[in-house]
Amino acid sequence: MNPTPSPAASGGAPPLRLGTRRSALAMAQSGLVADLVREVTGRPVELVEITTYGDTSREHLAQIGGAGVFVSALREALLRGEIDLAVHSLKDLPTAQPEGLTLAAVPRREDPRDALIARDGLAFAQLPPGSRIGTGSPRRAAQLNAWARSLGLDIETVPIRGNVGTRIGYVRSGRLDAVVLAAAGLIRLGRIGEATELLDADHVLPAPGQGALAVECAASSVPLAARLAEIDDPSTRVAVTAERSLLAALEAGCSAPVGALADLLGDGQAVTEMRLRGVVGTLDGTTLVQLSTTGPVPASPSAAADLGRVLAAEMLAKGAAGLMGERAL
Ligand SMILES: NCc1[nH]cc(CCC(=O)O)c1CC(=O)O
């Protein structure tokens, strides 16, 4: 987007090294952040490719522990000083912030919803009996099964994994009738046109932090963190902080069947309130604990975190803990 400043224009500062995974989605996300970082620092940014365990493992994500498999190699490179900043999908980032690293920025969020890609342009409610829907996410399976039951639809969720292209390929090849993916990933890859339905959060709540990016640097890089804070979007930060605090208070990881979404509600003129919704369920969708709270927009991330903890406590009081023991199918 922006021309890389010449060494003279950037005061001869060396390029910032931005660590990224090699998948098409990771490269697209890193490219977006690199543009923002060039703009606020005036420095050149170079992408450094890092291979993570999540990229090489053939196992189902939920079986290898989910939380953090995409993240740890990037973090180790940051701590070793091999890169200056790293970009993660926020929903893949464990809720505990490790010592030595700073979550310097959460840029403006993309559409947080999940998207259905079905054969023949079908919407979810139009899927014929016996349809097989691929998703590696217990959260999606639980909510899709519950939604199907409420519609009287006979569908089956099938665990799959792989990158976005691989998963869409299951539909194109006819092996599956549909797959469900994050809309944000499809948008960033220029493939949102292939979605046959954007799933309303009233039926499928996204993963906490879905659609948002996390820009991390070493805690010791104080001046860099201060510059990166300029690409932070405070509204996104408040919303995802509430969602992630809810997840943390449920003591669930990214492979748990937990959905959460904080939306800012407006009167057409200005944002007036924030609504936080959370859901936990069994994989088969027979039991869901789903709660919502609406109130003034939290004045700070720490107030947003309080809200997440309060809603989590209410969910636990309604039996949420008993629904989270399940792992992958
Ligand atoms: N778990 C993989 C992952 N991590 C982030 C995204 C999409 C981008 C986002 O949610 O921000 C995806 C793919 C998907 O769920 O379809």
Descriptive key words:
329 residues; alpha/beta; D-Maltodextrin-Binding Protein, domain 2; Double Stranded RNA Binding Domain; 3 domains; 5-stranded mixed beta sheet; 30% helix; 23% strand; binds the ligand NCc1[nH]cc(CCC(=O)O)c1CC(=O)O
Strand order of the largest sheet: 2-1-3-10-4
Order of helices and strands: EHEHHEEEEHEHEHEEHHEEEH
CATH class of the largest domain: Alpha Beta
CA-to-CA gap between the ends? 43 Å
- The fourth-level CATH homologous superfamily of the largest domain is Periplasmic binding protein-like II
Strand content: 15-25%
The CATH architecture name of the largest domain reads 3-Layer(aba) Sandwich
Organism: Streptomyces iranensis
Family: Belongs to the HMBS family.
Keywords: Porphyrin biosynthesis, Transferase
Cofactor: dipyrromethane
Write the layout of secondary structure elements.
Elements: E1 16-20, H1 24-41, E2 45-49, H2 53-56, H3 72-79, E3 85-89, E4 101-105, E5 114-118, E6 131-134, H4 138-151, E7 155-158, H5 164-172, E8 178-182, H6 183-188, E9 197-198, E10 213-218, H7 222-228, H8 234-249, E11 258-266, E12 271-281, E13 288-296, H9 301-317
This protein binds the ligand NCc1[nH]cc(CCC(=O)O)c1CC(=O)O.
What would you note in describing this structure?
The protein is an alpha/beta fold. The chain folds into 3 domains: about 15-105 and about 210-230, Periplasmic binding protein-like II (D-Maltodextrin-Binding Protein, domain 2), CATH 3.40.190.10; about 115-200, Periplasmic binding protein-like II (D-Maltodextrin-Binding Protein, domain 2); about 235-320, Double Stranded RNA Binding Domain. The protein has 9 helices and 13 strands. It has helices at about 25-40, 55, 70-80, 140-150, 165-170, 185-190, 220-230, 235-250, 300-315; strands at about 15-20, 45-50, 85-90, 100-105, 115-120, 130-135, 155-160, 180, 195-200, 215-220, 260-265, 270-280, 290-295. It has a 5-stranded mixed β-sheet with strand order 2-1-3-10-4, with helices on both faces. It has a 5-stranded mixed β-sheet with strand order 7-6-8-5-9, sandwiched between helices. Strand 11 and strand 12 (about 270-280) form a beta hairpin. Helix 8 (about 235-250) runs parallel beside helix 9. The ligand NCc1[nH]cc(CCC(=O)O)c1CC(=O)O binds near residues 89, 181, 182 and 184.
